[in-house]
Write a structure and sequence with these properties.
There is one protein chain. The chain is an alpha+beta fold and 120 residues long. The chain contains two helices and five strands. The protein has a single domain, classed as 3-Layer(aba) Sandwich (Trna Endonuclease, Chain: A, domain 1), CATH 3.40.1350.10. Helices cover 30% and strands 35% of the residues. Strand 1 and strand 2 form a beta hairpin. The chain starts with a helix and ends with a strand. This is UPF0102 protein GCM10018785_49060. Belongs to the UPF0102 family. InterPro entries: Restrct_endonuc-II-like (IPR011335), tRNA_endonuc-like_dom_sf (IPR011856), UPF0102_YraN-like (IPR003509).
């Protein structure tokens, strides 16, 4: 595992912990939708399905993690969410929501985890 993928996995582990602390149940991690991409985390929040994009950055990075969700990425996530739902028995009563979790790793101190519900 290279440093970049280790950083991403660490951020996803922190995101999973944040979702669990918020009362959500993680259903899937790193689900691949063929060549169209990957969903970092799929979770259940009550009767809603939540597709989470996780962005992890070091504090010295040029871009804040929350700025990394472009319209094209949001569109791809919607398509992946639709595919996940089709392969797993249909949409739940509460529908599907796309959340963004940004993890900022300062040079010192605890990571900052920010969760935006309904980001896309």
């Amino acid at each position: 595992m290279n440093a970049r993928s280790a950083l991403g996995k660490y951020g996803e582990d922190l995101a999973v912990r944040r979702l669990a602390d918020a009362g959500m149940t993680v259903l899937d991690r790193n689900w691949r939708g063929g060549r169209t991409g990957e969903i970092d985390i799929v979770a259940r929040d009550g009767d809603a399905l939540v597709v989470c994009e996780v962005k992890t950055r070091k504090a010295a990075s040029f871009q804040h993690p929350m700025a990394a969700l472009t319209p094209a990425k949001a569109e791809r996530l919607r398509g992946l969410a639709e595919r996940w739902v089709q392969e797993h028995g249909g949409a739940p009563p509460g529908g599907v929501r796309i959340d963004l979790i940004g993890v900022l790793l300062p040079e010192r101190g605890a990571p900052v985890v920010e969760h935006v519900r309904g980001a896309a």
